[in-house]
Write a structure and sequence with these properties.
Length: 175
């Protein structure tokens, strides 16, 4: 005799209803299942705090690292802009091109050191619109590049960004 559709589905539905009652801690008529369910829910006390703490740490560590990295890049951009501006101003006030270049390099190093960067992380270039860089009316442009490393990376030269800034100054008429 072939099985009807109801004969196959009714036992499956009964099993599903029983499992849902157990999962939802609903009374099914017997007190044994209700107490078992109460014991199971008591065993779960405190696990939400552990799960929340684990997920919070898992999600917050990358967010905090991202914020620190963005702060490093922002600090580097302040350092590069300040270094280029001050180097250009120092360069145009000198009387000798060799001394002017040396003074500009020292100015860049001091400005970058104030932000915690080293000589190895930076480079500088000075260009003039005339052959004599210190003649009156000459436009002097100083460009500074800075490699900003990833924070808290103890190995290798892994950089977060390469920043650059340029500043221009005109050599004064009475310099």
């Amino acid at each position: 005799m072939p099985l009807s559709r109801a004969d196959v589905l009714n036992p499956l539905l009964d099993t599903l209803k029983g499992r849902l009652r157990i999962a939802l801690c609903l009374r099914s008529g017997s007190t044994e299942k209700a107490t078992t369910c109460a014991r199971t829910s008591n065993a779960q006390n405190g696990s939400a705090v552990v799960e929340f703490t684990f997920l919070a740490l898992l999600l917050m560590v990358p967010v905090v690292y991202f914020i620190v990295t963005v702060g490093q890049i922002q600090g580097g951009s302040f350092a590069v802009v300040g270094a280029a501006d001050q180097a250009a101003k120092v360069f145009v006030t000198q009387g000798d091109p060799a001394n002017a270049r040396t003074a500009a390099e020292q100015t860049v190093l001091v400005a970058l050191r104030d932000y915690g960067y080293t000589r190895e992380q930076a480079s500088m270039d000075i260009t003039c619109d005339r052959s004599d860089c210190l003649s009156a009316g000459t436009m002097v442009t100083v460009t500074v590049w800075l490699d900003v490393p990833l924070p808290l990376v103890p190995f290798g030269d892994v950089r977060a960004s390469r920043l650059s800034a340029s500043a221009a100054q005109v050599v004064g008429r009475f310099a």
